[in-house]
Structure formats: C-alpha cells, structure tokens
Amino acid sequence: MSAALDLFTVVAVAAGAFFFLAGTVGLLRFPDVFTHLHALSKADNLGLGLVVLGLLPQANGLLAGLKLVAIWLLALLVGAVVSQLIARAARRAGPRA
Amino acid sequence: MIDALNAGIALLLLGLAIWTIVARDTFAAIVGYVAYGLLLTLAWVALGGVDVALTEAAIGGGLTGVLLLRAAAQLRRTEAASNAERPGLPMRLAAAIVAGGVAVALAIVVLAPAGPAPTLVPEVAANIAATGVGNPITAVLLAFRAIDTLLEAIVLLFALIGVWSLAPDRVWGGRPGPRYRADPDGTLAYLARLLPPIGIIVGVYIFWIGADAPGGKFQGATILAAMWLLAMMAGLADAPPVGRRRLRAALVAGPVVFIAVGAAGVATAGAFLAYPEGLAKPLILVIEWALLPSLALTLGLIMAGAPQRPEDR
C-alpha cells in the first residue's frame, strides 16, 4: 500500500514538474505578454496542483494535507488575479517592439 | 540526491546574485533580487533554519522588494540619463578593489577551518525552561537578547521617520502615496475583499505559533501590513494622514510597552529587561501582543511611502 502511494507521489510530482518545465519553455519562447501569461498559468495551476496532489499521501495527517490544498487554492486565486492585472496593464500600454 | 539539490540551490543563488549585480535595468535587478530572496528562503529551510526562512521570505524578499520597486518607479524618469553616464577608469578600479577586498576578507573569515564555531546553543537549551517559551529563537529574541529586539523595533520607527521626511513641506503630515482608484467591481477589488480575512488569520497564526514553533511577530506583522497595503491599492481603504495623533500613539505603543516592561525589570528583577521569576512567559506575551499592531502599522506605512497629498484629498 505504501509503495503504491509512493509511486503515486513520484508520478504526480514528476507530472507537475513537467508542467513547470513546459511553462518555463513557453515563457521563454512565446512572443508577447499574453502568451507568456498563458504559459505561466499552466505551470502555476496544473503544475502546482499536481505537486500538491502528489504530496498529499506523504502529508503528516489531515490538517497538513488541508494546508497543502489551501496553498494551492491561494496560488490559484492570486495567480488568476495577477494575470488579469498584468494583461490589463499590457493592453493599456499597447503593443511594444 | 539531497546533496545534488543543495548544490543546485547554491549554484542558482550564485547565478542570481551575479545577475542582480550585472543587470543594467533597475527593474530587472529588483526582480532578480526578489527571486534571490525566495531562493535564499529555500536554502534556509534546507539548513533547518525555518525561523530565518520565514523572515527572509516576508521581509527580505517581500517587504524589501516592495520598497525597492517603489524606489525604482520614482527613479524611472532619470534612469536612462544615469545609465548613460559611466564612471571613469580610476573610479571603477577603486570600486573593484574595494568590493573584491571585502569578498576575499569575508571568504577567508567564513571558509577558514578554525575548528567548530563558538556557540551558545547548549546554554540556551539549558536555560530555556526558565522563559516558559518553547521556541528557542523566541527565547533568545525576547528573553536572552531582548535588548536587540527592542532596538530593532525602534530602528523600524526611525526608518518610518526617514520615509516621512521625504515629503515636501506642503503635504507634511498628509496621506502617503496616491489615492488608488481601482474598478470597484474589478479583479483587484475582488482579491482585496477575499484575501485579507485569510491573510489576517495566517498573520496572527504565524505570530501566535512563534512561542513554540517557527514564526514570530515580525513575520506575522509583515503579512498583516501586506493585507492593509492590498486594501489600500484596491482603493477600498485610504492611507491615514501621518500627522494624526492617534496613529502616532499606536505606532509607538509597542516599543513603549517593551521599554516599560524592561524598566519594571530594574525594580523587580534587578536589571533592565530582566523578568521576575515565573513571570517570564506572561511578560513576553504582553510585549509580543503590544508589538504586533505597532509593527504591522509601521511596516505598512513604510511600504505606503512618503506623504504625497494633504489630508483632505
């Protein structure tokens, strides 16, 4: 049972790390602010979500698990708002070279 | 495996430190500095210094980052001109020699194999029971070296006076920063309504848990100050005029209580900042509870900046 949980952790965290890698590649390769945000939100939302999901079986009790989930939810909330603010500022500034 | 991770963190830290120094653009350098602070937080966690990690994340990365970004925004108009100027060769040589000398001296001091570093850890461990506090860091900060903490709280007040003194005469005692007007139905106002209840609980929790586990008033106060700043920037709350007497009283209340408890120690326990037998824990709690609101106000007002407009606008 614990070996299966460990395997689940490894797979989920690795999948999360893959999304962070893909998000970073997107940040470096995509052409403008809006596509950068698109790439980053994948890393933040899915990457962090998968890492948290993978760490849940290793959490020290229910409360620690809930704290992990709370961290993910807060990151989702702040990530969404900050993306909106950056995108609005970029649209107001207009296209730049 | 862990060694590889630690080596990776160390390499990234060095790389980011160099990038922060080399970057010509002020904004880029600040972003590098904040990332450096967050990475340093990871390094402290790896070393087992969770208290220091929390402080680094809250104050080193967060609060200092906000202050630097504000300063960079003020400097933006003159940045291109100052970047175009290049100091002469003797000046650059002198700077290189001084900076290199400091780095070499530090490296010698830190890396010299002088045997185990002197430590007071066993003495703290032997005497911590007398304080009634479970977290050795808190015991050092508020019992064994309380004078340092008192001076730190007072230094923050001096920093705030320094920020205020940047105000032009006609707005002296006025409100800091611009009046932020965000869309009341927009995302920022939404976040500023949703996040503060959570942030206030987290801030008070980090403060409260500091007695027995990593945490403390400086970290907690930074989070509270950040929530206040968020409400200000979303236009939901205005910064108070800094000339208001009640505000100034609240700012000095924490240090005044600290000094009063310390002075009472002269009569009851024979030394400034000494606690009478058995009363250490309650007195430490009194000081902590008095300092938290003052620190949160001070840090929030430092981040809000110098007064920029009169009281009624």
Set out the fold topology.
The complex is a heterodimer of chains A (97) and B (313).
Chain A: H1 2-29, H2 33-55, H3 62-93
Chain B: H1 2-22, H2 26-46, H3 50-84, H4 89-111, H5 121-127, H6 136-144, H7 146-164, E1 175-176, H8 187-209, H9 217-233, H10 245-268, H11 280-304, E2 307-309
Antiparallel strand pairs in B: 1-2
Helix pairs in contact in B: 1-2, 2-3, 3-9, 6-7, 7-10, 7-11, 8-9, 9-11, 10-11
Textual characterization of the structure:
The complex is a heterodimer of chains A (97) and B (313). Chain A is an all-alpha fold. Chain A has one domain (2-93). Chain A contains three helices and no strands. The model of chain A has no long low-confidence stretch (mean pLDDT 88). Chain B has helices spanning 2-22, 26-46, 50-84, 89-111, 121-127, 136-144, 146-164, 187-209, 217-233, 245-268, 280-304; strands spanning 175-176, 307-309. Chain B is globular, with a radius of gyration of 22 Å. Chain B has two domains: 1-118; 133-313, no CATH class. The longest helix of chain B is centred in the first third of the chain and has 35 residues, at 50-84. Chain B contains eleven helices and two strands. Chain B has 313 residues and is an all-alpha fold. Chain B has a two-stranded antiparallel sheet. Classes of the chains: A mainly alpha (97), B mainly alpha (313). The A-B interface holds A 74, 77-78, 80-81, 84-85 and B 187-188, 190-191, 194-195, 198.
